[in-house]
UniProtKB/TrEMBL annotation:
GO terms for biological process: proteolysis. Binds 1 Ca(2+) ion per subunit. The keyword Membrane does not apply. Residues 1-16 form the signal peptide. It is found in: Secreted, Extracellular space. The active site is at residues 285, 289, 483. Its cofactor is Ca(2+). Secreted tripeptidyl-peptidase which degrades proteins at acidic pHs and is involved in virulence. Ca(2+) binds at residues 526-527, 545, 547. One of its GO terms (molecular function) is metal ion binding. This is tripeptidyl-peptidase II. It comes from Sphaerobolus stellatus (strain SS14). Its EC number is 3.4.14.10. One of its GO terms (cellular component) is extracellular region.
Amino acid sequence: MLFVSVFLSFIGVATASRFAQNLVLHEKMDAIPEGFVQNGPAAESTTLNLRINLASTDITGLQEALFAVSTPHSARYGQHLTKEEVEAFVAPKSETIQVIKSFLRANGLTSKTISPAGDWLRVLMSVSKANELFGAQFSVFTNQASGQQTIRTMQYSIPTSLKGHVELIHPTVTFPTTFGQPRFTSPGIQVPLKDIFLVGNVVPASCATSVTPACLQALYGIPTARATQHSNTLGVSGFTGQFAQSADLQTFLRAQRPDLVNTTFALQTLDGGVNTQGAGSAGIEANLDIQYTVGVASGVPTTFISVGNDFQDGALDGFLDIINFLLAEAAPPQVLTTSYGQNENTISRALANQLCNAYMQLGARGTSILFSSGDGGVAGSQSESCTAFLPTFPSGCPFVTSVGATTGIGPETAASFTSGGFSNFFARPSYQSAVVSSFLTRLGSTNSGKFNTSGRGFPDVSAQGENIVIVNAGKTGSVSGTSCASPVFASVVSLLNDQLIAAGKSPLGFLNPFLYSAAGIGALTDITTGNNPGCNTNGFAAGIGWDPVTGLGTPNFPKLLTAVVSLGSCISRQLPTSPFLIQRS
């Protein structure tokens, strides 16, 4: 019996050894993220809801197509791709699908497709099965601040047979993150209407301490006339149980935009999302975003997109779900503004890359995607403890437009809380190469070693973000944060789109190649003072030209309109039906 026992043990070790040799390390977290503690192994019988991201057919081709339709003076500028054209780039090859299906079938597993292009699958399996198949050690981790427990692994591998077919498995090494919220000061001041009526574009002195839609119209030349194009829509992302209140919106409009009273917003929901009404359900972020889209983008049809907690994308908290939701639509909004984000180091590089690719897909469809840059200066998203600068995500994604914050009116200066810097995941895109190189030359050795000099720089632009007057739960007060700036700039883009569409031209779509062009830079007001301290430093300083505090500057609507009408392409023009017929540049 001893001989048999030893022999069986040898066989078991040999089998395990052969299995281990068939695995290759795919992702690894070097240390437990700050704020989490490990409690021990997860129960083997616990069911994991895993998502598998499959390699796309031609993601490089999609990127080339995106830049072709988004770069001024390109022969295909404005000829945004159809849903089918984007999906043809993104869909996995038949070989990849066959390999994955065979792998799952051999292990008694089934999958469900959870993305329009079929590049994301959902698979249920036990902890013990996941540990076995992926060489992982799923454990229980606790968020020390919230007490919330989650199951993650510090690393995982994939079988060599899946290499080249699987981009990542999630949620594995990415931990849940806590979103920052704008701070509401209430009861705030009630700004009398007589103080905000304008004479021409003169900015009232009250705007130095209380920013209203009228202040923004004066500062940026934003028109008050109602938009006319009903096909032009503006989407507002809603997360974390934030509900936009119709009553608060009407109170806000009666005080700040009486000409827009009774204007409302549409609602879309996903992941079990709702939009509960009542003072007890008022959400500061949701109210802010709706009041400064409906109240600034006069007459543009606005939709609040409420993401519930039944996430299909795991630890992404609906960030990928909302993009897949919009990609599945025949006509997604022309502009999407989101005032949420996280530190880049809280998400795995592979997962960040795939979410960024999802933004690329929506941008290719003709949607301008804007994100607030964060509120922790160079310390990231409302973070204090750091030695190296912490970039935020998704602001570091090169396919979104990141919006920083300014303050004051005479002239505007950078808001000190504005997050800005350089991505550690994404390389500097060509559209900003010249201006970022100029900034780094001016910077010299300041803060040397604290940031990635070859990374994608952000923010791209900025707008007012301090002392913004809103109504929340029936009370008038003020909020501050880059959360304020993103809906403002999004409103500007929506009003530009309204006039472009009225002229028979395409909406702007992915903004950055235009913004960084000579025409785009010339239509923005450069902000040259202020900085964004953090990590026991003064951070970066705003100056002449682009900087990682206020980007290229704040909008000048009349100049932007002049610039974009000369570039717009006819809406009716389309790219070839097959993306493979597009000539690569």
